[in-house]
Amino acid sequence: MTYPLLTNCPVCSKALKITKLHCNHCQTTIENEFEVSRLAALGQEQLHFIEIFLKCRGNIKEVEKELGISYPTVRGKLDEIISTLGYSTQKKPEIDKSKIVTMLEKGEITAEKAIQLLKEGE
């Protein structure tokens, strides 16, 4: 019987390091520190969701139908997975283009600064 790869210590919840690999065929054992993919940190339910998401080619409407869940639930699961993988789920704040134009017209910012602010909002 095989068990899923543990990535966190069941006692203290800190990250585990893989230090030993073994071949059951020839009995070779290799000891060292090995890296695992970020995806290894995902739970079984999250991996199942990712499989469905990929099968549906990222179409959230199809994921909704396949799993029988709502759009906000799909987005919530995606945000949870993104966060587990170590990425931020916060969107960049939207730039108010009319405010930038107004500031430029009033001479509060230079044309170069206005261009820079507009590019940051893209």
Mind explaining what this structure looks like?
The chain has 122 residues and is mainly alpha-helical. Among the domains are: 40-84; 94-122, no CATH class. Helix content is 43%, strand content 9%. It has five helices and two strands. The longest helix is centred in the middle third of the chain and has 14 residues, at 71-84. It is elongated.
Helix and strand topology:
Blueprint: E1 18-22, E2 29-34, H1 44-55, H2 60-67, H3 71-84, H4 97-105, H5 111-120
Antiparallel strand pairs: 1-2
Helix pairs in contact: 4-5
The dominant shape is: elongated
Describe the biggest sheet?
2 strands, antiparallel
Q: Can you tell me the residue ranges where pLDDT is under 50 for at least 5 consecutive residues?
A: none
Report the sheet-strand fraction: 5-15%
Number of discrete helical segments:
5
- Radius of gyration over all CA atoms, rounded: 23 Å
Distance between termini?
51 Å
Strand arrangement, major sheet: 1-2
Mean pLDDT: 89
Protein name: DUF2089 domain-containing protein
Pfam families: DUF2089 (PF09862), Zn_ribbon_DUF2089 (PF22747)
Q: In short, what is this structure?
A:
This protein has 122 residues and is mainly alpha-helical.
